[in-house]
Amino acid sequence: ASYLLAIGCADLTENPISGITSSYYATPAGFDAAVNASYTPLRDWYGQEMGMTMTTFGTDEFTNGSDGSFKFFNTYDTQLNGDNSYSRDFWRSTYRAINTTNTVIGRAATANVPDATKAVRVGEAKFLRALYFFNAVRTWGDIPMPLKSTEGPQTEATREPVAKVYDQIVKDLTEAAADLPPSQPQYGRATKYAAQQLLMTVYLTRAASGDFQKAADLGKGIIN
Question: Which residue from 100, 112, 93, 94 is spatially nearest to 149, judged by alpha carbons?
Fold first, then answer.
């Protein structure tokens, strides 16, 4: 037997119950939520198998054991390519994170929070953006470097030279160190010394002319 069902005069009007628009970021709660969300992607990388696999495998710090699905990061066989899940997921996580920090930085001007608080929170976002770019540029070399939040579909991306990415990282960290306090009342938030320490690491990694001396000068300043 066969059955035919028909629906007539159906009301397909949508009535959203609630929603969050871009104006939410201008509120104290919305701006703070965006800053907090900028930290969240750190959980995908630090202390996780993905982060350790992509940073210590292939070095003399670790070697693969009898189990695990990502030995090719240590053996450098043909499975180590851009199609493996860790490379794909790290790329996605990184650029989602960068987009969130760009939202904080871009929306700060209209955020309804005290200027002093705003400066600190933007400093945190710049520290985090620099950290995400730093991890990305060391992984892939030339990379896209968006400095504004995404407001619609994008079908093209342009890779920026490594040198330009490092210049932006240094700029973000220098500005962050100037605005961040030496300590924060909430555990885990970026501080002035965290920004300076990361900047030293960036200088030592980039190793351009004068970078070693810049790193040494920063180190002396922190110790003193």
Answer: 100
Question: Whole-angstrom Cα distance, residue 122 to residue 25?
Answer: 13
What values do phi and psi take at 197, rounded to 5?
-65, -40
Q: Please tell me whether residue 160 adopts helix, strand or coil conformation.
A: strand
Of 139, 128, 145, 105, the C-alpha closest to 191 is 128
Residue type (1 letter), 202: V
CB 205 within 8 A of CB 213: no
**Concatenated DSSP letters of 67-117:** --S-THHHH--TT-STTSHHHHHHHHHHHHHHHHHHHHHHHGGG--S-HHH
Contact 107, 114 (CB under 8 A): no
Cα radius of gyration (the chain): 22
Q: Which of 208, 180, 98, 91 is nearest to 140 (CA)?
A: 91
> pTM for this structure?
0.87
pLDDT per residue as tens, the chain (224 positions) = 555 555 556 566 766 656 666 788 889 899 999 999 999 999 988 888 898 888 888 888 887 777 778 888 888 889 888 889 999 999 999 999 999 999 999 999 999 999 999 999 999 999 999 999 999 999 999 999 999 988 777 778 899 999 999 999 999 999 999 999 999 999 999 999 999 999 999 999 999 999 999 999 998 877 76
Measured between alpha carbons, how far is 160 from 145 in angstroms, rounded to an integer? 6
